[in-house]
């Protein structure tokens, strides 16, 4: 039916502490991304189009740990991961350890639609990007001063492993429901500051960690401590609770609480069901998010703090 409620929800990663002026830029960033995704849906675009559009917007915004602005690995370089999934037929595409391209999410979508595979990595992904005509850009174009500072700080902190679960919770993601009742998710990240070269987190793992989409249940994108998310299969675990008849709120709380109690892992998620109800939840200090539905834009960053405005 055409009167399905269109919805897009985005997150800009979890965070331990965000300065006042950065809070404003981050809120604007997620609000813009949700609006971009929502407009795609209103023009008849698919859920896949909408989540890709929203995530591209966040990759292009240097405030977020994805695309330009990604954190640096131990070698001082940007290595990015991304994935996308279509709830209609469970088709999925992912890339990991990609360098020198502006929008890894676009490459993930091409893996989904132009190859028989789900997941390409490193040099194979680079070769495929070139074949598909995705322009290579100098790696330095993705590096910001802020990322350089973070790497310096991390390298100088002794015993930083203990704090690792608490910081660097940066991933961007989106979920959407379109007019045909299809859901999708997309997610993209630069990973963890000072990570080992070749480290892969939860973001490209469509095995139900970084995200999942199934028309029969809903769609989810996760963020937080990647290793913890992988171990509990956070995305699929949350959808499992939803399938069992739990509410969106309960499903989100159950899976996040499990990850926290079992592994001390902090994280967050955005979740929609097949009828377009949505929820955002996190256990990290804050998580920038925005949701667009019924021509209204909802956004927030800290617990119990939501702003609602009318979309043009």
TrEMBL record:
The active site is formed by 171 (nucleophile)
Q: One of this protein's Pfam families, by short name?
A: Asparaginase_2
What's a Gene Ontology MF term here?
beta-aspartyl-peptidase activity
- Organism superkingdom: Eukaryota
In chain numbering, the residues marked as site (Cleavage) are: 170-171
Enzyme class per UniProt = hydrolase
Swiss-Prot/TrEMBL GO biological process terms: L-asparagine catabolic process via L-aspartate; proteolysis
A GO cellular-component term linked to this record: cytoplasm
Provide the catalytic activity annotation: L-asparagine + H2O = L-aspartate + NH4(+); Cleavage of a beta-linked Asp residue from the N-terminus of a polypeptide
Check the record and name the InterPro entries matching this protein: ASRGL1_meta (IPR033844), Ntn_hydrolases_N (IPR029055), Peptidase_T2 (IPR000246)
Assigned EC number: 3.4.19.5, 3.5.1.1
Query: What residues bind substrate, as annotated?
Result: 199-202, 223-226
Keywords associated with the record: Autocatalytic cleavage, Hydrolase, Protease
Q: How does it assemble?
A: Heterodimer of an alpha and beta chain produced by autocleavage. This heterodimer may then dimerize in turn, giving rise to a heterotetramer.
Reported function: Has both L-asparaginase and beta-aspartyl peptidase activity. May be involved in the production of L-aspartate, which can act as an excitatory neurotransmitter in some brain regions. Is highly active with L-Asp beta-methyl ester. Besides, has catalytic activity toward beta-aspartyl dipeptides and their methyl esters, including beta-L-Asp-L-Phe, beta-L-Asp-L-Phe methyl ester (aspartame), beta-L-Asp-L-Ala, beta-L-Asp-L-Leu and beta-L-Asp-L-Lys. Does not have aspartylglucosaminidase activity and is inactive toward GlcNAc-L-Asn. Likewise, has no activity toward glutamine.
Give the family per the record.
Belongs to the Ntn-hydrolase family.
Q: What is this protein called?
A: Isoaspartyl peptidase/L-asparaginase
């Amino acid at each position: 039916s055409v009167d399905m409620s269109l919805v897009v929800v985005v997150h800009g990663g979890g965070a331990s502490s965000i300065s006042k002026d950065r809070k404003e830029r981050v809120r604007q960033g997620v609000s813009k991304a949700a609006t971009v995704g929502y407009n795609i849906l209103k023009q008849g675009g698919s859920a896949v189009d909408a989540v890709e559009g929203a995530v591209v917007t966040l990759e292009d915004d240097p405030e977020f740990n994805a695309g330009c602005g990604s954190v640096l690995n131990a070698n001082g370089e940007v290595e990015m991961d991304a994935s996308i999934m279509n709830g209609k037929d469970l088709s999925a595409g992912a890339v990991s350890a990609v360098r020198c391209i502006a929008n890894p999410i676009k490459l993930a979508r091409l893996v989904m639609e132009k190859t028989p595979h789900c997941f390409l990595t490193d040099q194979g992904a680079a070769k495929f990007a070139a074949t598909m005509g995705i322009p290579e850009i100098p790696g330095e174009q993705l590096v910001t001063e802020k990322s350089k500072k973070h790497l310096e700080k991390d390298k100088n902190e002794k015993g930083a492993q203990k704090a690792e679960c608490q910081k660097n919770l940066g991933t961007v993601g989106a979920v959407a429901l379109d007019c045909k009742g299809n859901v999708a998710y997309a997610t993209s990240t630069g990973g963890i500051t000072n990570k080992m070269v070749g480290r892969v987190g939860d973001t490209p793992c469509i095995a139900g960690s970084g995200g999942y989409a199934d028309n029969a249940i809903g769609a989810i994108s996760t963020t937080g401590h990647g290793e913890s998310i992988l171990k509990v299969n956070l995305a699929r675990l949350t959808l499992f609770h939803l399938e069992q008849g739990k509410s969106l709120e309960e499903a989100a709380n159950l899976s996040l609480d499990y990850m926290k109690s079992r592994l001390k892992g902090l994280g967050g998620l955005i979740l929609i069901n097949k009828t377009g109800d949505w929820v955002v939840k996190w256990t990290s200090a804050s998580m920038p998010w925005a949701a667009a539905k019924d021509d209204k834009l909802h956004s927030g960053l800290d617990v119990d703090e939501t702003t609602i405005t009318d979309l043009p």
